[in-house]
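Hello Y.,

Per our agreement to keep a running log of every chain we model this quarter, I'm adding this entry. I've kept the format consistent with earlier entries: sequence first, then predicted structure.
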Amino acid sequence: MQRISTGLRLPPLLFFFLLFFRPLTSGDLEEVDNVPVEVIVDSSPCSTTCGLGLKTQTLCLMKDGERAMEEGGRSGNGAEVSEACRVRKVKCQESWQCGLRTMTVTSGQRVEIDCLGEVMQAMGRFSWRVLWRYARGIISSDDSLFDRWEAPQLDRVILDPVREEDAGTYRCDVQDAVFRRVKRVYWGIRVLPAGVLNLDYDWKPAKPDRVAPA
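Predicted structure for the entry above:
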């Protein structure tokens, strides 16, 4: 069964003929009324706030195909939907910029930075082009400070064991098959000498002692 989701998905030649060459007639509407039309009745938020994610949509068949044709198949237009519904997952993206993330580790530990994430790996690791850059010894998102960095794993950087000279900021860019940028994230890594306590805490100045009036 051919379905039309969130609007019209007629055969391309018929759709463009109806749209550009002549107005719809009652005969056209009668024919369209027999074509299953789906509308999105519910949609979840995107699973990620940056980069590619997934969201879940619920689509239901409309009972009145003619009304869907007249009003463009928009959901929420008062047309009735049937109980024939299905759920699908679709890709989504709110922003390609993921900002700066920082971590403090001790020399000798294992550090792994994953650039793609679970969603992109599920879509196929080799569907993406991953580029790394590195700013040695500083925590910054100033792109002029970064040099190219070759990561053997391509989709991740593994420092095992991490050394003090590995400290700095690692930048990851992900492009899709048509070289469109879909994600950029910075990881700032502080490396403390072995045996030093983690100093990654919020510091607040102590309140001065109150001096009694003379």
